[in-house]
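User: quick one, sequence for these tokens?
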């Protein structure tokens, strides 16, 4: 019996090895030569071009040369409205750069506004990372067929059908390239106003799903920072990694095709007209304030920090890359431009895998008298279990170094009254943290797409705004304090040599738990497995 099982296992391993060998042998003919794909370069319009968006903000910014204005977008509905409003008000250009674009309620409502802008003659450039598109070529080609819309996919695979062996053979054979993803997020209208931050386009990012809500943060921005954001978009758009969708799928665009697409978007709006998001488009207060430019801007000097797409051509451990990291890498730019904390540092990082160097850096700040507080996901809120496992490997070291840790609680029960964990391998819970921000000494803020994990720092490309503004810092610090409060998060502490989780009961009594609260034994077991087996560089 034992021998039969051993032979069966050996046979399965042989099949697996054979598949990998075939993949490695055939991937070369299935891969794509990115540089050989024809494309026409384009760039943002002059930032001084007279449009309605420029006119609504000029009076507030002209008196502050070199200063940008910011408005934090914490609520998902506000973030959705801001994007819709910019699409409606754009007169010349819309540039959209995203890691994920979903064809769900909010995603299609926004794409409908983008299509409407193109119908008015606005030039639309839509750049989407290819990894999550999963057979979306046909739908995107309908948009790409419009004479005012161009869609490009970033770092694509040659095989476009997601669940095919040929595609996965290509992924295995060309893994060093395909593993590198564009995680950037930006929405830019008329090179006058932009939105940067953590949100992709989809219901979970705008708090429009019942089974999953992301706590996230964007910045609505105007002023010099917008020109920097447009310049970053142009670098990505014109890079060899941005491939026109028509290289894979083309639709003959004509009046009939455009009319059908117009009717399709209108039908979607009719289907969802009872949703809060559709209602908000009819007259939410923020929408009216955006239209008339009546916004409570937080002003400050700012720089856009962004990985150069050249990062994807370099090995993450290449010494030459490290030598140039201040120019090519967001992390290097942050180290060169951000002030060193002298009093306090607040970090929000949903996927927090600091590594030994990160623990040493934060520990050194604590020894200098800096209060270091970190808010991240808990085991019950994290929708990426391998990343949570990577964080768990450093939790004790962080606490022993004096870092204050807070882990987000699920925001509430699902319909059945239980915390939702949708699948046994660590799928999405009821709520998850997705915001990525830093507040330094209540005077400097960073908000962007950067997770503090090896994948964001070394492998993917990221973007974010570094702003010197006490007013904006106060806003973002207040968001941290709300989300780290006892009703929203567990405080992680060391108690009698062991890690424990504290929560305050309504009576004010602090209850201490010695196992991760809300997590099943199975989920805790999976975390331990991932903590041992998951390669840290891929987290």
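Assistant:
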């Amino acid at each position: 019996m034992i021998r039969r099982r051993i032979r069966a296992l050996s046979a399965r391993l042989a099949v697996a090895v054979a598949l990998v060998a075939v993949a490695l042998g055939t991937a070369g003919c299935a891969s794509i030569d990115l540089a050989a794909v024809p494309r026409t370069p384009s760039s943002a319009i002059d930032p001084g071009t007279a449009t309605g968006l420029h006119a609504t903000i000029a009076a507030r910014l002209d008196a502050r040369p070199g200063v940008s204005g910011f408005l934090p977008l914490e609520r998902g509905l506000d973030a959705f409205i801001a994007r819709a409003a910019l699409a409606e008000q754009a007169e010349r250009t819309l540039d959209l750069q995203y890691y994920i674009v979903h064809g769900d309620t909010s995603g299609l409502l926004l794409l409908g506004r983008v299509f409407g802008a193109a119908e008015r003659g606005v030039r639309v450039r839509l750049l989407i990372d290819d990894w999550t598109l999963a057979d979306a070529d046909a739908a995107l080609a309908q948009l790409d067929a419009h004479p005012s819309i161009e869609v490009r996919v970033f770092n694509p695979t040659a095989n476009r059908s997601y669940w095919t062996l040929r595609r996965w053979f290509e992924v295995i054979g060309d893994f060093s390239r395909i593993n590198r993803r564009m995680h950037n997020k930006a929405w830019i209208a008329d090179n006058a106003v932009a939105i940067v931050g953590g949100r992709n386009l989809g219901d979970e990012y705008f708090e429009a799903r019942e089974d999953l809500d992301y706590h996230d943060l964007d910045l609505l921005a105007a002023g010099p920072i917008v020109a920097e954001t447009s310049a970053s978009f142009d670098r990505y758009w014109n890079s060899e990694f941005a491939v026109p969708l028509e290289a894979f799928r083309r639709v003959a665009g004509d009046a009939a095709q455009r009319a059908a697409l117009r009717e399709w978007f209108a039908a979607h709006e009719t289907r969802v007209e009872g949703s809060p998001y559709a209602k908000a488009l009819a007259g939410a207060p923020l929408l009216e304030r955006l239209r008339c430019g009546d916004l409570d801007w937080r002003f400050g000097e700012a720089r856009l920090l962004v990985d150069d797409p050249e990062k994807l051509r370099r090995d993450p451990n290449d010494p030459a890359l490290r030598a140039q990291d201040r120019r090519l890498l967001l992390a290097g730019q942050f180290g060169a431009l951000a002030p060193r904390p002298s009093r306090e540092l607040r970090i929000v990082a949903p996927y927090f895998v600091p590594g030994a160097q990160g623990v040493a850096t934060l520990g050194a700040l604590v020894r200098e008298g800096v209060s270091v507080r970190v808010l991240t996901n808990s085991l019950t809120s994290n929708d990426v279990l391998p990343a949570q496992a990577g964080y768990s490997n450093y939790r004790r070291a962080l606490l022993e170094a004096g870092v204050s840790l807070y882990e987000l609680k699920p925001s509430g029960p699902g319909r059945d009254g239980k915390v939702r964990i949708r699948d046994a391998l660590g799928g999405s819970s009821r709520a998850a943290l997705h915001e990525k921000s830093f507040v330094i000494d209540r005077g400097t803020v960073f908000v962007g797409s950067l997770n503090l994990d090896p994948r964001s720092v070394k492998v993917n490309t990221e973007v974010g705004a570094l702003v010197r503004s006490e007013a904006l810092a106060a806003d973002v610090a207040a968001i941290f304090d709300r989300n780290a409060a006892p009703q929203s998060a567990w405080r992680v502490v060391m108690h009698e040599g062991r890690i424990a989780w504290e929560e305050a009961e309504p009576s004010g009594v602090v209850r201490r738990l010695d196992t991760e609260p809300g997590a099943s034994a199975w989920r805790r077991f999976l975390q331990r497995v991932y903590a041992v087996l998951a390669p840290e560089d891929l987290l």
